[in-house]
Design brief:
The complex is a heterodimer of chains A (323) and B (229).
Chain A: E1 3-7, H1 12-23, E2 28-32, E3 39-45, E4 49-55, E5 58-61, E6 67-70, H2 79-84, H3 89-107, E7 111-113, H4 116-119, H5 125-134, E8 142-145, H6 148-158, E9 161-164, E10 174-175, E11 192-196, E12 201-208, E13 211-218, E14 233-237, H7 241-253, E15 258-265, E16 271-277, H8 283-289, H9 293-302
Parallel strand pairs in A: 1-2, 1-6, 6-7
Antiparallel strand pairs in A: 3-4, 4-5, 8-11, 9-10, 9-11, 12-13, 12-15, 13-14, 15-16
Chain B: E1 2-5, H1 11-19, E2 25-28, E3 39-41, E4 48-51, E5 54-57, E6 63-66, H2 84-101, E7 106-107, H3 122-131, E8 139-142, E9 156-161, E10 164-166, H4 171-184, E11 188-193, E12 202-206, H5 214-228
The chains are: A alpha+beta (323), B alpha/beta (229).
Chain lengths: 323, 229
């Protein structure tokens, strides 16, 4: 058994999971992205998937890995790589290390939290929203458009509307207000996402394998993550068995062993789901609530038996297309 | 309308637009997404597009051929340089949702991470082929041995379009090419083997084969026409 952690050593979720794995005496190796220029990777794929990672004098046999927690950033954003520039040997090396490790993590029979192929839907919020809807969740009415007239009509139909990025690029969720009307003329250059505003209390639910950790967020801001004047209050809470079950089922349907699910409960008690984060920075919530999320992660990784995961190691599910 | 989603510099795409002119084929590129008229409503077929200045409702689109994996920032010369990367990312995310929402035939249907269908790495294709029982040559890639040439052994290419398969090879290889395309969930796939004989091994695959030949273009058109019925 060997647990592999991949990402920058200073990443908080990675650090806390690493600490918990040490408490459990689980053999663990960290592939620290800050040492990418010292990192060599070799993968061999045929009927089996194998290879090695070497960082300095240390070598990791990838066939011994039973579980992986992937929290990489783009290596080219590391100061040393960015400074070297896109035409440098350093840049090419960093890109290649990222590519090889990403490729291996897609194919290995080890437990991977989470595979990039499972996480990729989060790169398009409207695409992911349809996955969420397909699992039976209520989702806000959504329009993605570069047509100002369509926005005005959607706004009129829904009363209150928010706008946010379409892609996975982090953006602040903001309410569309009268003073924005003039800027609607700028919409034509790129489709923008608008959503029906849903009033209520935000909940962040972390699903770790079969465990569900729910946290209620009291905050008056449109986006509590960026709230300055109204400091969000986070508290651990219990969900009904039905909502817990639906959160778990959603993570399973998306092939996510770890998921950060954004819900809102309306004053009428209706639950809406906005997004599922496949690589949540759960430490923010863990520190506020005391919920043992990193411990649950460590247990999940420690107890992984590779042969369990061979069925999801195909890059794509075997599904005939709709055409 | 038939839409070919491609870079403006894509000569094969331009050739296909010309060939499919009588089927109202148009080229759509990233610049079109900066023309007012695109709307995608959740859970609705009322969505619409604006291509080459023509507004079209989704139900009027009879087929789409996608020849890009994503919108690239260098395709956005009309956007201020500081915004190009962000806009490229937003347009790519929009197109994934928009293409997925279409009910007409789409070659290939997008997957998260790639607008043109499954963009597996060489070892991904190899592992998928091996899992299907197709003989493979193992792929070895390493950081200290760049650049990697994935298919330098291949001498035989087969093109799968729907149920059809083009190229000269043994029936066994043709069957394996079809099997791989089906398993990958794609209706357009080039599959390369080390040779045309039945004992040849899988070398690589590519979901964006060049269709700029009469035979392949007609097959793709036929696929979209038949599947749309």
């Amino acid at each position: 058994m060997l647990v592999l952690l991949w990402g920058p050593a200073a990443d908080l979720p990675l650090m806390e999971v690493r600490y918990q794995l040490e408490q459990l005496d689980v053999p663990t190796k960290l592939v620290d992205q800050r040492r990418v220029l010292e990192t060599e990777v070799e993968i061999v794929v045929g009927e089996t998937v194998g290879g090695h990672i070497r960082v300095g004098s240390e070598s990791i046999n990838l066939e011994e890995v039973s579980a992986v927690y992937v929290r990489p950033y783009e290596s080219v954003n590391l100061p040393s790589i960015a400074a070297a520039g896109p035409d440098s040997v350093e840049w090419a090396h960093a890109m290649y290390v990222d590519d090889l490790l990403a490729s291996w993590s897609e194919l290995t029979s080890a437990l991977v939290v989470n595979r990039f192929s499972a996480s990729a839907a989060n790169g398009s919020k409207p695409y992911q929203l349809e996955q969420i809807r397909a699992q039976g969740w209520k989702v806000p009415e959504t329009l993605i458009t570069n047509d100002a007239d369509d926005v005005r009509y959607f706004w009129k139909q829904n009363g209150e509307v928010i706008y946010k990025s379409v892609s996975g690029t982090r953006s602040r969720v903001s309410r569309l207000r009268a003073e924005h009307t003039e800027r609607l003329a700028d919409l034509s250059s790129c489709p923008t996402q608008f959503q029906q505003y849903i009033p209520g209390v935000d909940h962040r639910v972390h699903v770790v394998d079969d465990k569900v950790f729910a946290c209620a967020v009291q905050c008056g801001a449109d986006d509590y993550r960026y709230s300055e004047n109204d400091v969000p209050e986070l508290r651990a809470c219990s969900l009904s068995e039905e909502i817990e079950e639906r959160c778990w089922a959603l993570a399973v349907a998306m092939n996510l062993s770890l998921a950060g699910i954004d819900l809102r409960c309306t004053p009428q008690g209706e639950w809406y789901c906005f997004e599922v984060n496949p690589s949540p920075a759960f430490t923010y919530y863990q520190h506020a609530t005391g919920q043992p999320i990193s411990q649950a992660m460590a247990l999940l990784l420690a107890n992984a038996a590779p042969e369990q995961y061979t069925t999801i190691s195909l890059p794509l599910e075997y599904n005939p297309t709709r055409d | 309308m038939l839409i070919i989603l491609a870079a403006p510099s894509d000569k094969s795409a331009a050739w296909l637009v010309e060939r499919w002119q009588s089927h109202d084929a148009v080229l759509a590129s990233a610049a079109d997404l900066s023309t007012s008229g695109w709307s995608l409503y959740s859970a609705s077929s009322e969505s619409k597009a604006c291509i080459g200045g023509r507004k079209v409702r989704n139900e009027e689109i009879k087929g789409v051929l996608t020849r890009i994996s994503c919108v690239q920032s260098h395709d956005l010369s009309h956007i201020v340089p500081s915004d190009r990367e962000y806009v490229a990312s937003e347009m790519t995310a929009f197109l994934l949702a928009w293409l997925s929402n279409l009910t007409c035939p789409v070659l290939n249907r997008p997957v998260p991470g790639c607008l043109g269908g499954p963009a597996l790495r060489p070892e991904g294709w190899t592992y998928l082929a091996a899992r299907l029982g197709i003989p493979v040559t193992p792929v070895r890639r390493k950081t200290h041995d760049r650049p990697f040439v994935p298919d330098n052994l291949s001498t035989c290419e087969l093109i799968v379009i729907g149920q059809a398969c083009f190229g000269d090879a043994s029936p066994k290889l043709i069957e394996n090419a079809r099997l791989l395309a089906r398993a990958a969930g794609t209706n357009l796939l080039a599959v390369r083997f080390t040779g045309p004989d039945s004992d040849s091994t899988f070398a690589n695959a590519n979901p964006w084969p060049d269709l700029a030949s009469s035979q392949l273009a007609d097959a793709a058109l036929n696929y979209m026409s038949v599947s749309a019925c």
